[in-house]
Amino acid sequence: MTRKPMIAGTWKMNMTATEATKLVQQLAYQYEDNYGEIDVVICPPFTALRSAQVILDYETKSKICIGAQDVYWEPKGAFTGAISAEMLKNLSCVYCIIGHSERREYFCESDEQVARKAVALTEAGIAPILCCGETLETREAGEAISFVTDQIRAALDGLPASQAGGIVLAYEPIWAIGTGRTPSPEQADEVCAALRDTFCDLYGSAAAEQLRILYGGSMNPGNVEAFCAMPNIDGGLVGGASLKADDFLALVKAFS
Ligand code: PEP
Question: What angle do CA 25, 255, 205 make, to 5 degrees?
Answer without folding.
Answer: 120
